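Researcher: Next entry: Diacylglycerol O-acyltransferase (Antrihabitans stalactiti).
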Amino acid sequence: MVSRLTPQDAAFYESEASSTPMHIGSLAILENVNGALSYETLLDIVEKRLCLVPRYRQKVREVPFGLGRPVWVDDSEFDISYHIRRSALPRPGSDQQLYELVARLSSRPLDRNMPLWEMYLVEGLSDNRCAIFTKSHSALVDGDEALEIGHVILDSSNTPRAVADDLWMPGEEPGDAQLAVSALAEVVTRPGDGVEIARRVVGNAGRAAGYTAKAFGRVAAGLHSKSDNAASSPLNASISRNRRFDVVKTDLQDYRKIRAHFGCSINDAILATVTGALRTWLLSRGEPVTVYTTVRAFVPMSVYVGDLGDGTSISGSELSSFVVDLPVGEPNQVIRLSHISHATEAHGRETRSVTARTLVRLAGFAPASLHAMSVRAASSYSQRTFDLLITNAPGPQIPMYIGGARALEMYPVSPLLRNQAMSIGLTSYDGKVYYGLNADREAMADVDVMTALLYESLEELLNACA
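Model: Predicted structure:
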């Protein structure tokens, strides 16, 4: 089957650079008693369920001479063993060794000649644990029509659910001439595409301008541009190809306690926690912090009314995006929370409801698809500048399993945007809130300081509730 990339898919595909690979990562740490989840078991599960995410067997083909946007085509030589890989830590592997491995794997761009995803089974973790790290290109996952593969390999019981046999046969891959003719034929039926083709052929649009001026302009400006007036900050720096990754593990009940005491939202409590940590981190670096100092954060996922185990329903969830100035200059944690709460209430939000179809498919879901939607939402802010991307997506509040192995922890690994030294992703799962901090190895060598300060900041807010 052949289908053309949407303007936004094409924009993400073309916006990728060696120092800013545009893939969404997810890390699941599992209890693997008696080796229930082996490489062969994982291979079998994914192979049987690829029919539920058909794009994972497709690759991108570019149209000759830039006559049209690239297309998705079936990979006639699809080899699942290429995409699902096996790695091991020296036993007994520590969590820090795992995070270092994730950082290295996150640094590597995906092979554009193959379907744009990889999955790693990491063995050798201490305490009878293993891990699965998955990365999928932002062009591959849109959260609506194309979901992240984590949705299909998770089960709500330790017995994998049955899936109908898949009789997939790859479609014939078109040649260059066929792709060019097809693209030109579309111009006849959609003359507006002729402007796009003209720009591409004469080179005026260029690789950085994208496939349509409007669609790519939004992505390139929203994701990659910083205004000349943007305040200097150690969070805004030239970044390398190498990454650091660290995590924070907290209890969802702590944020509920803060919500109940101060009358704010769980999302506000999380943002206040991040703000307090950023304040102390900036001071530790000797940065000038005055009472008016702020860090502008883009928060493309502010959903926290979903399946959180407190009687609320995921059917009320919305994808809500906004930019908020985090008051890192305010020394009092309660006043910081108050500022954030008022800002998120008063801010003009651009929202869209998660479709009913998506909600049905999210029953017992992996939140990586929502994080992918979050990164895409940033393209709506072409005229806005921000220092930090914070994605925050709810996950299932019941234990989930992969091949009989129980998932203990789930962490998002959000991509770094151009000239941004760190991104923070959060996922709630089974009564916990897990932070994944993806950072540039050179510009953010002290990411471990930031993780320690997140714990301190949360403790400060809890003490204020006493």
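Model: Note for the record: Residues 243-464 form a domain with the Chloramphenicol Acetyltransferase fold (CATH 3.30.559.30).
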